[in-house]
Amino acid sequence: MVNRLVLSSYFVLFAVFLPVMVFAQLTAPPATATMQQDTLHLTLDSAENIFLRQNLSLLAQRYNIDAQKALVIQSKLYANPNFNIEHGLYNTQTHKVFPFGSDGETSAGLSQLVMLAGKRNKQIKIARANVRLSEFEFYDLLRTLKFTLRDDFYNIYYLQQSAKAYDEEINSLQKVVDAFVEQKGKGYISQKEVVRIQAQLYSLKSEYRDLLEQIADQQSEMRLVLQVKPVYIDPLVDTTSLVALNPRQYPLPALLDSAYSRRSDLMIARTNTEISKLNYSYQKALGVPDVTFNLAYDQQGSYIKNYTAAGVAIDLPVFNRNQGNIKSAKAMIDVNTATQKSTEATVEEQVYRVVEKATAADKLYRNIDASFASDFQRLMHEVLINYQKRNISMLDFLDFYDSYKQNVLQLNSIQYNRVRAFEELNFVTGTNFFN
């Protein structure tokens, strides 16, 4: 009997506190928001300065440039001369160890390798081309990371604007719910209406949590690019300068010329073609054997005592004339030439497409009434007051609130897509035309 009473008590407590726990979980602020303690307020210029100073990927690529420059020094060095000397270890007739004088034998030689067919100059040219390649790879990494940084910067900003709209709408609905909960016990508000408003509130909070998670992901990516400690980054955006951006400010030929002359990935493709041609020339030169000049001295091991001689040595290109490497190097010219043409076609198409995208995004933005957002926000407050006064129905009230939310999200999305299109124009042209 006692066990049944205890069990019954547990069921009663569970039934009472379960709704409370569910409500507490739904109304609790997202964990992401509570972690935003240290805030780093950044303009775009200051963010780029931090990025240039602290990004480790850029630092590693700079070291790679230094490594390639060191190889240029190495390619300029001549082959070292070779010196050898021999002395008799044991005289079997006199039974002396390391005999000297007339009982001993000493020989020595000095040789020097001389590369023919301009191999050294060709090595230097290849090494210098590899330096240029590493520099273009650095600029391409810089271009890519800079685009990621700027895109994250504006994405975070406009997501934050959407989060503010959610926060404002949630606070307004929370006040309505709190007021209705008080009035429900007095019989002024129906249970159905309270539950419907609460459901809308919980839905907004769920969407708000998803939005904060999206902001947190962008924050994480931006912190990695900046190489800063875990802080909350608050972008400071000059919206006035953004409004003035115009995709028709620069003609298409100017954008294409900039892309052809400044795109680092195109420079990489061209440099690879150049290196393949230099390597083909070098491989053909390797088919020409090098010459070794030598001097020799022999104390008494030759036909006369104190023999001295000068000689020349050269490989005879009978079997190995470097045929395979020459053929491979020639094929690589075709490979890299095709890759270069493909990259040029890609660059041209990207510029055309992004100009088209930026023009469409800017046109959509320009067609929006500048006062539309502020008028909609003012109407939202009036609708809230009229609903509390019971001048409009619950369905009209919820429909307007949902329209307000969708309007804010759409406006922020339009503005972000427009700014991103301008950033893509900078990216595909390799030039900061739009800042």
TrEMBL record:
Gene3D superfamilies: Outer membrane efflux proteins (OEP). Residues 1-24 form the signal peptide. It comes from the Bacteria. Residues 163-221 form a coiled coil. GO terms for molecular function: efflux transmembrane transporter activity. Keywords: Coiled coil, Signal. This is TolC family protein.
